[in-house]
Please model this.
Amino acid sequence: MKSRIYLSSPHMGGLEQEFVRSAFETNWIAPLGPNVTGFEQDLESYLGNDVKVAGLSSGTAAIHLALILLNVGPEDEVICQSMTFSASANPIFYLGATPVFVDSEPETWNISPEYLEKAIEERIAKGKKPKAIIGVHLYGMPFKVDRVMEIASRYDIPLIEDSAEALGSKFKGRMCGTFGDIGILSFNGNKIITTSGGGALVAHSEEVKNKAIFLATQARENAPHYEHREVGYNYRLSNVCAGIGRGQMQVLNDHVKARRENHHFYKEIFEAMPGVEVFSEPSEEYSSNHWLSCITIDSQLAGFEREELRIAFEKENIESRPLWKPMHLQPVFKNPVYYGSDVSENLFRNGLCLPSGSNLTNNDRERIKKVISHFG
Ligand SMILES: *Cc1c(COP(=O)(O)O)cnc(C)c1O
Model:
């Protein structure tokens, strides 16, 4: 059996073990220590714009804390892009709040400004102004940042920028993760850099960063004994994992470059194939890290279905996967409130994510190309 080619697998740069070793040598085997602080500083200088970063145990934890920091509670509604990974929406339920799902637009596959505004208007008309908006830069593609931010600020609703897939992506030259009132990052094993598991909350003040760290470390008040006035969480990043992160930061730009090259590789292969569209930036304003390269297949024009290609890859032990199934179609979210048409549903039906690791080899590319060549 040929070795498996994954969609996106961890890719170490080499220095990670040095940072992890130093954690062991200094006995900082805890959810605090020099690697946590160092990793946070690395992220702050990488993202620029004077952001303040809190290292956390996961991207999901970061979204949960972001909602808490924005005072979301059981009576509240939160607008969330429907086409995304469930981790964008689950924390809304952790708080007993209600998600209002919004469709994507076809250019960036992310939250539709039209339906976002419609949702806000209708929820307000029904007597409840949404407490927050969660927009997602899917597959690294920035959402329509200008338009979404304009709507959020016009209605005075805070924006949570789910940048879990978009570290290194830019809109008009500015780093994704720095636009929202609060941004979030993920360092899960399949993301553009990994700490094996981890995440971060991106704030615009030291105060918000410190509040996030306070909540993430059991909301312990400043006292010699354990004193608590608020409900706390155990969400801080470990110093061992942060050591991996510090090593990964040194190769982040290489990873972005490699993933963008994967995108070009697929553009070239599919160029001559009618009915197959490689997901690409709509204009020069957008720069995706191309975390995953994706295609949509118009089976009428292409003469084959998405599933035929996926199964052909699988036979060669190559992983590919349908796009995210929209949240308003997920059985777990019963009777969802949804604003939109069929854009995300069609993307889910016709779209495929392709192997996109920064560690794809030439040999891997040849195997991928060979499978695709049977379809052209
Ligand atoms: C991965 C991911 C998350 C969650 O991050 P974890 O670190 O896995 O908890 C949230 N949103 C999106 C869009 C993601 O892809």
Remarks:
- The mean pLDDT is 97.
- The radius of gyration is 21 Å.
- The chain has two domains: 16-250, 253-373.
- The pocket of pyridoxal-5'-phosphate is lined by residues 58-60, 84-85, 87-88, 136, 162, 164-165, 186, 188, 199 (CB under 6 Å).
